[in-house]
Design brief:
The chain contains 15 helices and two strands. With 298 residues, the protein is mainly alpha-helical.
């Protein structure tokens, strides 16, 4: 049985120094925003998205010198979303992973600029990653922009998270929640897996199985987050809890209750693992990660 926490820890030991090296400090006063960018990216985190990029790419024999730049650019984009999500105008959080959020560690204006900087740097860094063939880089840039954007991407999901309310029609409500859960968190997880398949030039049918796996774990991940907001230990989770209820957020948990949401998340994970059958034992890390997603405590 794969000890996924040990595997993740080993991955971080190798990947985090690479990620830190992406943020050389300028000499002038503008270094403050780079310091805030670096602080936000290196402020803990399990590196699940980076791990998914590299482990999926590894299924096809892609070396880390090729997958690490893709993983780093994704971590930058993910960190930007967290910096902005924590701002007073959004979720207004003081803590992220048990440490001060960017706007608390620096200030609100710097945090806004740091988020802007991380978003643009993610694309700049990926575009300049010469280890990756130009046509593959172009595909990855297109996929990353779509995953992070307002037309079915992360920004669309965050918008639904802010403004979605019940329509009074169960089918419509279920559709809203499913889209919210998939887009807000799921799109970047989907990109993580799909980018590994693109790097490995996977056949279309194999790539589709991986996309299906990623969509299911992405939705389950967000449901698990919603459950942790309701039931988690603040010391372990490292941020303010019970905010979804206080802000009347529209989630599987608020709509169906914890037990029904948990049951649905487990079903999604079982289906996701089923998509990996074609890879045999090579996908054991991806299977173990799927199980970890719904069993984690933070």
């Amino acid at each position: 049985m794969t000890d996924i926490l040990a595997v993740l820890k080993q991955f971080c030991t190798e990947f985090n120094p690479y990620l830190q090296s992406c943020f050389p400090l300028p000499q002038g006063a503008e270094k403050r925003v780079v310091e805030a960018m670096s602080y936000s990216v290196m402020n803990g985190g399990k590196r699940l998205r980076a791990f998914l990029v590299c482990n999926t790419a590894d299924l096809f024999g892609v070396p880390t010198k090729v997958s690490f730049p893709v993983a780093a650019s994704l971590e930058m984009l993910h960190a930007y979303s967290l910096v902005h999500d924590d701002l007073p105008a959004m979720d207004n959080d003081d803590l992220r992973r048990g440490k001060p959020t960017c706007h608390k560690q620096f200030d609100e204006a710097t945090a806004i600029l740091a988020g802007d900087g991380l978003q643009t740097y993610a694309f700049e860094y990926l575009a300049n990653s010469l280890e990756i063939r130009p046509e593959i880089r172009l595909t990855l840039l297109q996929l990353l922009a779509s995953a992070g954007g307002a037309f079915g991407g992360m920004v669309a999901g965050q918008t639904l998270d802010l403004y979605a309310t019940s329509t009074g029609n169960q089918k419509e409500d279920e559709d809203i929640i499913a889209r919210l859960e998939e887009m807000k968190t799921g799109r970047l997880l989907r990109y993580a897996v799909e980018s590994g398949a693109v790097l490995g030039q996977a056949p279309l049918d194999v790539r589709q199985k991986l996309v299906s796996y990623s969509r299911k774990i992405g939705q389950a991940f967000q449901i698990a987050d919603d459950i942790l907001d309701r039931e988690g230990d603040p010391k372990l989770v490292g941020k303010t809890l019970h905010k979804d209820d206080a802000q009347h957020k529209f989630t599987y948990v608020s709509y169906y209750g914890v037990e029904q949401a948990r049951k649905f998340a487990r079903k999604l994970i079982t289906e996701a693992i089923g998509e990996l059958e074609v890879f045999g034992n090579k996908a054991d890390n991806l299977r173990a990660l799927a199980q970890y997603i719904i069993n984690r405590k933070y």
